[in-house]
Amino acid sequence: MDSLKMTADTLLLEGVSITVERPLFSVEGEKTLYQVSDDPTVQSGVASDALQNAPGVSVDVEGNITLRGTSSVEIWINDQPSHLNKENLKAYLQTLPANAIDRIEVITNPSARYATDADGIINIVMNAKIKKNEFLCFGTNVSSQPYVMPWASYVWKNQKWTVNAYTSAYFYRGEMDAQFERDLYRKDESGNLLHASHIVNTRHNKYFTYSPGGSLNINYEPDAKNTYSFYLNLWDSFGPSEVSQKRERTEYLEQEGFYKYLITNVSNTNYLYLNSGLYFQHKFNEEGHNLTFRWNGTWNRNAVPLEDHTTYTLPVPCETAFRMDYRYHNMPVSANLDYNLPYSPNGEFCMGLRGSWEKERADVIVDNLEDGVYVRDSVMSYRYRSGNQSLGGYFMVRHRFGNFTMQPGMNLKYYRTRIVYPDAPDYDFVKDDFDILPSLHLSYRTPSMHNFKMSYSMKINRPSAKQLSDFNQYDIEMYATGNRYLEPIYTQHLEASWTKYWDAFGSVGLTGYYKGKKNDINTSYESGYHEHYGRTVFYTKPVNVGRSYTAGGEFNMMYRPNGMFNLRFYANVYDSYLESNYGNSEQLTPNELWSYSLQLSLWTKLWNRLEVHTSGYYTSPVQTLFQEVGAHYSIDCGMRTDFFDHKLSVFVNGYDLFGLRRYSNTYTNPVMQGTSNSRYNSTYLCVGFTLRFGNVELENEAQTAGEKGGQ
Question: Hey, where are the domains in the chain?
Fold first, then answer.
C-alpha cells in the first residue's frame, strides 16, 4: 500500500453526565449513614421526624431521644457536640427543617477520637456547599395540635465568602392527662415492710410554648488550603404551664385517716440557649494531611417561676400555698485540636487534644404562705455551684489492606468535678479521675457490595457532681437525693454487622450487639418517713446496679426498585438484664425483660408530582431499675407536591391517626408499687407551604443556618 496522509483535527464532544444513585442507608466504618436529603418522605417535616427514621433511633411524643432503648446518647451537629440541654434540644429539633439536613450518622460504638462518655452518638450533618449565588425562601407550618411555625432563610455566596442566616418561631399548645396510683411502704426497726399509704392522683396539664430563634454562619476561604468559620445560634423557649391535680391519700401509719385535696400550680418556663463557635482548618495537601482547630462556647439559662396552691377538703378543710423561683445556668466551653497524617495511600494516623470547662449554677427560692404572708422556706430553698474540667487526647491509626480496614485507637482523659453549696458547706466536695480507654474497629467490603463490620470499645462513665452529692432537694410530695458512694460505670461494647446492597432492589442488613455494664447507675424509687413532711413519702436516689447488659439484634430492609417507590422495614429485638442489691441487701435482685420495636414506612410518587408516604411503629415494654415502661405505637401519613417549577411546595401530614400513642409505667420497687398512665394530644393534622426566590439549588444551604460550623 502507498503511504497514507493523516491530518490533525479537533472534534468537540458534548458533556457526559454519569449519575450513581447512592443507597439511603449505608455503613461507613463505625457509622451507619442515613441520607436524609435523598429521602422524600421527610422533606416536609422537621429534624425530629428525620431522626425517627434513622436506624435504632426513637423519638417519643415529648421529644426524648433514645438509641436502642438507652437515653445515654449525645446529639452532635457537623461533627461537634451540640451542648444543648434536654429542653433546648427538643425545641431545636422541632424547629429545624428536615430538608436542611444532608445525612444523619448513627454511631452506636464510638471510637477513641470522639472522646465521649455516652453509649452512642447521633451526628446531624447539614447540607454541603454550593455555587456562587444568593437565595431566599420562607414558609409556614400549621397544625391542629395546635402549633404554628413560620420560618425564613437566606444565603449569599461568592468565591471566598458564604453567609447563612435563618430564623423561625414556634408556637405550640399541648395537653396531657395522667393517672397515678401508688402504694408506699417503709421499714420498721426490725426491717419488716409496713404498708404506709395508698395514693390516687389524677392530673391534667396544659402548656403553651413559644420558641423564637435564629442562626448566623460566616465562612471564609481565602485559598484552597485554609478555611475560617464563625457561627452564632440563639434560641429561646418560654410559655406558661398550668397543672391541675386531684389527689386522694389514705394513711395507714402516720395520722391515720383519709385525705382528699386539690393541687393547682401555674408556672412560666423560660429556656434560653446561646451558642457560638470558631473553626479553622489548614490543608497541607489534598490527600488528607490537615490540622483542624475548633472552639465552642454555650450558655444555657432555665427559669421556672412556680405558684402552687393546695386545697384540702378532708379531713379538715384548709388551704396552703407556696411559690418557687427556680433559676439554672449552665456554661460549657470546649476546644479541640486534631491532626491527620496519611502515611501511605492505604493508611492514616490521627491524634488530637481535647479540653473542656463547664460551670453550672442553680438557685431555688421557696416561700410558704402563712397567715396571708409569704415566708421563706429554709428547707426547700437551696443553692449549688458545680464545675467540671477535663483535659485529654487520643491517637488512632486507620490502615486498609485491600478491602479490609483496621482502626485501633486509644483515648486518655483527666477529669475533675466539684460542687459547692453556699448555704450547706458540709456537702461540698472535689473529685479527680484519670481514664485510659481502648477501641478497635474492623470492616470489610466485597466487590459485590457485602459490608461486614466488627467493633469493640471500653468506656468509663463517672457520676456527676450532683449525683454524688447527698444533699436533699425537696418538692411538694417527694424529694430527690444523691449518693456519695456511687462507683463509676465500666462498659464493654461489642458489635458485629452485615449489610448487602443491590442496585435494583435496595438493601438488607443484620446487626448483633452486646453491651455489658458493671455498676450501671439507675434511679431507685424509695419511700420512708421524713420529718419535713410528717409522713411517709417517696424519694429518688441514684444507685449502682450490680451488673447489667443489653444484648440483641437488628434487622433492616429497604426495597427501592426505582426512584418513585421506597419501602423500609426495621426491627430491633434485645434482652435487657439488671441485678441489684437493693436496700444494701447481700442478695441480688434480678430483673430481665425481652423488648422489641418494629417500624414500617412507605413512600411513593404518583403521576410524577404527588408524593405520598405512610409509616407505623410499635415499641414493646422496656425496663429500668424496678420500673417497666409500657408499649407505645403510632400510624402517620402525609402528602406533598410542588408547583411552578419547584418555586412553591405544599404538604399535609397526619400524625397518630387512630390515637394509639399512650404511655404507662409499672413500679415494682419493694417499697413503692403502683402504675401511672399518660395520654397526650398526639393526634393532629399539619399543613404547610414553602416559597422560594432565587436559584433553587441554593435551598439546601439556605436552611443550614448557623449550624454549618465551617464544614
Answer: 25-707
Greatest alpha-carbon span in the chain = 126
Q: What is the average pLDDT score of the chain?
A: 83
Q: What beta strand segments (E) does 131-160 contain?
A: 133-143, 147-157
- Say if strands 73-77 and 120-126 run parallel, antiparallel, or are unpaired: parallel
* DSSP result, 549-611: EEEEEEEEEEEEEETTEEEEEEEEEEEEEEEE-GGG-SS-EEEEEEEEEEEEEEEEEETTTEE
Q: Which three cell numbers stand for residue 154?
A: 437566606
Residue 622, φ and ψ in degrees, nearest 5: -125, 165
Spatial separation of the C-alpha atoms in residues 49 and 66, rounded to whole Å = 14
Question: pLDDT at residue 699 above 70?
Answer: no
Question: What three-state secondary structure class fits 380?
Answer: coil
Distance CA 564, CA 90 (A): 32
Q: What is the amino acid identity at position 528? A: G
Helix, strand, coil percentages, rounded to 5, for the chain? 5, 70, 25
The SS3 of residue 115 is coil
Which fold would CATH assign to domain 25-707?
Maltoporin; Chain A (2.40.170)
Task: Return the closest-CA partner of residue 97 out of 666, 693, 649.
Answer: 649
Residues 435-490 pLDDT 10s? 999 999 998 888 888 889 899 999 888 898 889 998 999 887 789 999 988 999 99
Pairing status of strand 429-445 against strand 404-420: antiparallel
What does DSSP say about strands 672-680 and 684-694: parallel, antiparallel, or unpaired?
Answer: unpaired
Distance CA 307, CA 328 (A): 18
Residue that the C-alpha cell 426505582 belongs to: 562
Ranked by mean pLDDT, which of 2-6, 72-76, 483-487, 525-529 comes out on top?
483-487
